[in-house]
Structure formats: structure tokens, C-alpha cells
Specification:
This protein is of the alpha/beta class. An eight-stranded mixed sheet has the order 1-2-4-3-5-6-7-8, with helices on both faces. α4 crosses α11. The N and C termini lie far apart (52 Å).
């Protein structure tokens, strides 16, 4: 019993240290009137890469590919509103357009200019709105390329898991209140590949970051992005079809939410596709499950589209 308690304490200390170390690498910036956590690392002489994370996590999603990417890019990432170390208002008015406003404000505040973009999950949808702004001339900065990891690019192919459906429902607040760490682990792990499940320590860090600023209480509020995808489908699909910059997909094929079936729909709709990297045994979090594979495909895409890296 004493040994188990000691191991538990050591694990918690490791989790706390990991969270604190990530926090120390960034800063809080006031963007659109909110406190937003931002990390900006790498030589300003290098090309800039903007990373946009998914739901329900944070910029820490990118830690597995971060150090390698920073050898080739200046990396800028943020925790979007409601995530990670950023402000987490308890209101049911989170929108993809609002998140895109914050990203544009960050690009302007840091005068980023030319940027490459790598997005995942919820971040894919934010990137679609930002890409639409690039097309109509209202967006900040100048996008050079955009690469999408697994995400709900098309509402008709997004297979929400039961927990997501319940959180979006009128009883979402109750489901959120009752859900604990065990339920989170089971639900979160279910979208990973069979042989690439998150470790216990990774799960604890994800959970800890969700809880920063009492964040778990707003889970059901963040789920409204699914409604945004339906309402703005035509604008966001059109952005993929009419893009004037190179687009890529790096997709975990066995993802039950947005795996191979999403790639098939992407092709069917004749969206622009300059590069496709398929990871046959990987699920919804390619950058966590197979960081080496993601890096390989991403570098090939950048080399093909810009003759760099």
C-alpha cells in the first residue's frame, strides 16, 4: 500500500512538473480582450509555422513534434479560448469565428507576415475559417501553405463519439458534471489506434491541462463548434476547394471520428490536395501517436510545395 501511494505521488509530481515546464515556455497575451497563452520559439530568421490545436486539449498536443520542428521553423502556438492556460469563460457562446479572430489578432500582434499552418481536429475548423479569410482578403498575415491532421472538415463525415453528442445535448451540463478522470481516459483513448494508445502519464497531463483555470466545467460549452460546422459548411468547404495555397492531409486512417472516410470525402468533393500522407494504423491524434510519421510527411509536403526544409 505504501509503495502504491509513493508511486502515485511520484506520478503526480511528474505530471505537475510537465505542466509547469510547458507553462514556463510561454506567455499570456491579451488578444481580443482575453488572456491567451502563447508559445513562440525558434529563430525569427526561419520560416514561421503556426500550430492550431484540437479539442479538448491544448498546445501541449504538439510537444512530440515541437523540438524537431523548431530546428526548421519559428513555431508559434496558442491555447485557444477555453483551452489549456488561456481564459475559460463559463458561457455557451464559444464560436469558431471567435477563435479565428483571436488567431488573426495573434498573427497581427506578432507581425508574423508569411506563415505555414499545421492544424488538428477543432483547429482544422478554425483553419478553414482563416483560410476563407485569406481568400476574401480579410485575414491577417500571408499563408504559404496549410496542412490538416485528422479533424471534422465535413460535418457529414464527422462521426462524433457518444460523449460529444451528450455534451452537446440539453443535458450536457449534467454529463459534464458527472464525468471524471476514468470516463475521460476511456473516451479519449477510444479514438487512438489500437497499438498507439496514450500512456497513463500522457493521459494525466492532458487531464491536468483541461483542469487549469477550472476548465472542465466548460466542456459542454465548447461543444457548440459542431453546430458551427453545420451552419458554415458551404463557406468552409469552399475554402478547401478554392484555395490558392498548397493544402495537405496527414491522416490517421483508423480514426473512428475522421479517418479514411474523411479522406475519401475530401477527394470526392474535389478539394485542393497537394499532398496526402496516410498513417494506416494511427487514430485521431497522429502527432501524439506517430510523431515521426507526421514529421516525415509534413517535411515532404513543405519540400514539395515550397522547395524548402
Amino acid at each position: 500500500m505504501l509503495r502504491d501511494t509513493t508511486q502515485e505521488m511520484t506520478s503526480q509530481q511528474s505530471t505537475d512538473a510537465t505542466v509547469a515546464a510547458w507553462r514556463a515556455r510561454g506567455e499570456l497575451m491579451t488578444l481580443v480582450g482575453k488572456q491567451i497563452f502563447v508559445i513562440d520559439e525558434g529563430s525569427p530568421e526561419l520560416p514561421t509555422l503556426l500550430l492550431i490545436h484540437g479539442f479538448p486539449t491544448s498546445s501541449w498536443d504538439w510537444q512530440g513534434v515541437w523540438d524537431e520542428l523548431s530546428q526548421h521553423f519559428r513555431i508559434v502556438a496558442m491555447d485557444m479560448l477555453g483551452f489549456g492556460f488561456s481564459d475559460k469563460p463559463n458561457a455557451r457562446n464559444y464560436t469558431i469565428h471567435g477563435q479565428a479572430d483571436i488567431v488573426d489578432a495573434l498573427v497581427s500582434a506578432k507581425s508574423l507576415g508569411d506563415v505555414h499552418v499545421l492544424a488538428h481536429d477543432y483547429g482544422d475548423t478554425v483553419a478553414q475559417e482563416l483560410l476563407a479569410r485569406q481568400l476574401d482578403g480579410s485575414g491577417a498575415g500571408n499563408w504559404l501553405s496549410c496542412c490538416f491532421l485528422n479533424g471534422g472538415l465535413f460535418p457529414e463525415t464527422h462521426r462524433a463519439i457518444l460523449t460529444q453528442k451528450l455534451l452537446l445535448s440539453p443535458i450536457g451540463f449534467l454529463i459534464n458534471k458527472l464525468a471524471g478522470y476514468g470516463k475521460f481516459c476511456a473516451s479519449f483513448s477510444s479514438v487512438f489506434g489500437q497499438d498507439s494508445k496514450p500512456s497513463e502519464q500522457e493521459l494525466k497531463v492532458f487531464w491536468a491541462l483541461i483542469h487549469v483555470n477550472d476548465g472542465k466545467h466548460i466542456f459542454h460549452n465548447l461543444m457548440t463548434y459542431i453546430l458551427d460546422r453545420r451552419q458554415h459548411r458551404e463557406r468552409w468547404v469552399s475554402a478547401l476547394q478554392k484555395s490558392t495555397i498548397p493544402l495537405a492531409l496527414i491522416n490517421g486512417s483508423v480514426d473512428p471520428v475522421s479517418g479514411a472516410h474523411m479522406v475519401a470525402r475530401y477527394k470526392e468533393l474535389q478539394c485542393r490536395l497537394d499532398y496526402l500522407g496516410e498513417l494506416s494504423t494511427v487514430g485521431h491524434y497522429p502527432q501524439v501517436e506517430d510523431p515521426v510519421g507526421v514529421l516525415k510527411h509534413f517535411y515532404e509536403f513543405i519540400k514539395k510545395s515550397t522547395n524548402s526544409v
